[in-house]
Design a protein that fits this description.
- The protein contains five helices and four strands, in the order H-H-H-E-E-E-H-E-H.
- The protein is α+β, with helices and mostly antiparallel strands.
- The chain has one domain.
- Strand 1 and strand 2 form a beta hairpin.
- The longest helix is centred in the last third of the chain and has 11 residues.
- The radius of gyration is 15 Å and the shape is elongated.
């Protein structure tokens, strides 16, 4: 009996960029250990864009107003409450995720 592989594992194995290919899980065991990559871009002293990878071999970026005192500490707020960026804008801000599908 042949076991079907999850689509996310297939996508991860097909990524061309070695760092990202190694990052995304390609098995259930690796999925249990997955930790997302989080990157941010300051768009103004009080505006922060944050991108985060997802376990399903995808990523998304969000933007929100923040107090601006500590952008690193404000990343989680943006991920939880920010507005999702359009894919074209997100890809322009975070080109290092090239080749990785943008989450729906």
């Amino acid at each position: 009996m042949q076991t079907l592989e999850h689509l996310a594992f297939e996508r991860a194995k097909a990524l061309e960029e070695p760092y990202l290919r190694a990052h995304f899980p390609k098995s259930i065991a690796e999925a249990r250990e997955f930790k997302p990559i989080v990157r941010s871009r300051v768009l103004g002293s009080h505006v922060l864009a944050v991108a985060q990878t997802r376990i399903e071999c995808a990523w998304a970026a969000y933007v929100d107003a923040v107090p601006g005192w500590n952008h690193q500490a404000e990343e989680q707020h943006v991920l939880q409450h920010g507005d999702k960026l359009q894919e074209s804008v997100a890809r322009a801000l975070f080109p290092n995720f090239e080749g990785v599908p943008y989450a729906d």
